[in-house]
């Protein structure tokens, strides 16, 4: 079994409810699910059975991992909920969903995704900026998917809208086990900047 990052027991993953335009994204989602299970880390995610979300949850469960899904009643009613999870929590609103996911995670990862993925990612980063949590965050940058976002964050920092220390907290890797290790290092020492986004 892989060594779990220090003090991190649960990882919240934000990702697409679609598969994306290339097979590599679904493969990466499954790879992350397997890596989390191998490291003995609980996956916390949005509870759906479709897209990258479903591929990741399926892989984590197949590898013996624990998976907590959080889904609003409205999505459950449309039969989008995954029925094979360790724990499925049904909530009333998207706000309640996001809060429960944040509260149940020790670290955060964004896989490729769309508007919802970015909205959740930036909420977590903003909450850290405001002092509501001190949990590490990372991007699983599959085939350069997040390169434009990394450039944008660096630009915002260079233009004086975001502090360098905030930008540098975002860990980046193209491979799941590497990213988990970097999140563990960030948890142990938030001042480290190895493979972080830099302005």
TrEMBL record:
<keyword id="KW-0378">Hydrolase</keyword>
<comment type="similarity">
    <text>Belongs to the LOG family.</text>
</comment>
<dbReference type="Pfam" id="PF03641">
    <property type="entry name" value="Lysine_decarbox"/>
</dbReference>
<dbReference type="InterPro" id="IPR005269">
    <property type="entry name" value="LOG"/>
</dbReference>
<dbReference type="GO" id="GO:0005829">
    <property type="term" value="C:cytosol"/>
</dbReference>
<dbReference type="GO" id="GO:0009691">
    <property type="term" value="P:cytokinin biosynthetic process"/>
</dbReference>
<dbReference type="InterPro" id="IPR031100">
    <property type="entry name" value="LOG_fam"/>
</dbReference>
<protein>
    <recommendedName>
        <fullName>Cytokinin riboside 5'-monophosphate phosphoribohydrolase</fullName>
        <ecNumber>3.2.2.n1</ecNumber>
    </recommendedName>
</protein>
<dbReference type="GO" id="GO:0008714">
    <property type="term" value="F:AMP nucleosidase activity"/>
</dbReference>
<keyword id="KW-0203">Cytokinin biosynthesis</keyword>
């Amino acid at each position: 079994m892989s060594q779990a990052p220090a003090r991190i027991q649960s990882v919240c993953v934000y990702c697409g409810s679609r598969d994306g335009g290339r097979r590599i994204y679904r493969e990466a989602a499954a790879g992350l699910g397997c890596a989390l299970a191998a490291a003995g880390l609980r996956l916390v995610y949005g509870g759906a059975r479709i897209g990258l979300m479903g591929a990741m949850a399926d892989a984590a469960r197949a590898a013996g991992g624990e998976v907590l899904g959080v889904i609003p009643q409205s999505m459950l009613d449309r039969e989008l909920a995954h029925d094979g999870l360790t724990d499925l929590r049904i909530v009333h609103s998207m706000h309640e969903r996001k809060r429960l996911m944040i509260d149940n995670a020790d670290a955060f990862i964004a896989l490729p995704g769309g508007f919802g993925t970015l909205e959740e990612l930036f909420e977590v980063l903003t909450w850290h900026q405001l002092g509501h949590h001190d949990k590490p965050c990372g991007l699983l940058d599959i085939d350069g998917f997040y390169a434009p976002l990394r450039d944008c964050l660096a630009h915002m920092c260079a233009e004086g809208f975001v502090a360098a220390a905030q930008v540098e907290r975002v860990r980046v890797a193209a491979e799941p086990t590497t990213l988990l290790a970097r999140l563990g290092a960030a948890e142990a020492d938030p001042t480290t900047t190895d493979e972080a986004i830099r302005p």
